[in-house]
Write a structure and sequence with these properties.
Layout lengths: L20 E5 L3 H13 L4 E4 L2 H10 L3 E7 L7 H12 L6 E6 L4 H9 L4 E4 L4 H21 L4 H21 L10 H20 L7 H15 L4 E2 H8 L3 H13 L3 E5 L7 E5 L1 H14 L4
Parallel strand pairs: 1-2, 1-3, 3-4, 4-5
Antiparallel strand pairs: 6-8, 7-8
Length: about 290
């Protein structure tokens, strides 16, 4: 029987946490035991849930949990569905960073998960180095968002995660031949994409990392180089997202100091947008460092 209580290694004698608790969720007892041992060796306090329903109960009762490390493939409720359920119930009031584990690297699923700001997507078998790296990234994201006072990670993810659930169900319906592997070129593309996402995170706050926000920033960066402001309506179109979603992202980017918004002096019916000077400098640094021309 697994010990489902949190490890004490990451707690001081006064019982105060040095960081967020990790909730480990999965239906494979052997894997859970291995992951728990690794977390304990890393000094990370954690609890274990062997079913999604139990995970929801633990999250509801224990507000110290800040990282959700969950298997994707579980009977009854997938890891994606679990995150959506948690987001719908408590996402507006809690800061919880999800990390996914999958037995098979569904290419589309990995890409979409990373676009939505999931801290990491691990493929089984998960090595200690993989788990350590994922936890370090998740804890960094948690700390940054904790300092910014914005707990909306799961709420932001919930509005788009329905598509991930559908993609997962479609991927499950396709049975790969026994022993087959994805082409190595695809694996390299996924690894390159994930690496680029992590590089982007070095230059921009969380508000800029979701795909909708990034498309808005790219459109405004090009406009900045051309010396042209952009109407809010045009930025919404460039985002390729529903208008309500795009407007919410624009508000977040303005609040984060990445965008500047002002009334159009020639047309009182619309507002204009541009990148802040600081944001444009970050854009220059990011593309200069990571996308040099051959």
């Amino acid at each position: 029987m697994l010990n489902t209580e949190f490890a004490s290694a990451a707690y001081a004698q006064d019982g105060q946490s040095h960081g967020p608790l990790v909730l480990l969720v999965g239906d494979d007892a052997a894997c859970l035991g291995d992951y728990a041992a690794t977390l304990a060796a890393l000094g990370l306090a954690h609890r274990i849930a062997e079913t999604p329903d139990r995970a929801i109960d633990i999250l509801t009762e224990d507000e110290r949990i800040g990282i959700l490390l969950t298997d994707i493939d579980m009977p009854g409720m997938s890891g994606m569905q679990l995150v959506k359920t948690i987001a719908d119930r408590i996402g507006q009031h809690r800061l919880i960073i999800p990390v996914f584990i999958a037995g098979f690297a569904y290419v589309d699923l990995v890409v979409e998960a990373m676009r939505l700001g999931v801290a990491d997507f691990l493929r089984k078998p998960v090595t200690r180095a993989d788990l350590s790296s994922a936890m370090a990234r998740a804890r960094t994201i948690w700390s940054q968002r904790q300092q910014s006072g914005d707990p909306a990670t799961l709420t932001m993810l919930s509005e788009q995660i329905t598509g991930l659930v559908a993609a997962l169900e479609q991927a499950r319906s396709i049975t790969a031949p026994q022993g087959s592997q994805r082409p190595s070129s695809v694996q390299r593309q996924i690894e390159r994409y994930i690496a680029n996402q992590r590089k982007r995170a070095q230059h921009f706050p969380d508000q800029a990392l979701c795909e909708t926000s990034w498309k808005i920033l790219l459109d405004l960066a090009l406009a900045h180089l051309k010396g042209k402001p952009v109407a809010v309506s045009s930025a919404c179109i460039a985002s390729e997202a529903p208008v309500s979603t795009a407007l919410r992202r624009i508000r977040e980017l303005c609040d984060a100091g990445l965008l500047v918004r002002w009334p159009d002096p020639t047309d009182g019916r619309r507002d204009m947008l541009s990148l802040s000077d600081e944001c444009f400098r970050s854009m220059e640094a990011y593309f200069t460092q990571h996308y040099q021309e051959a």
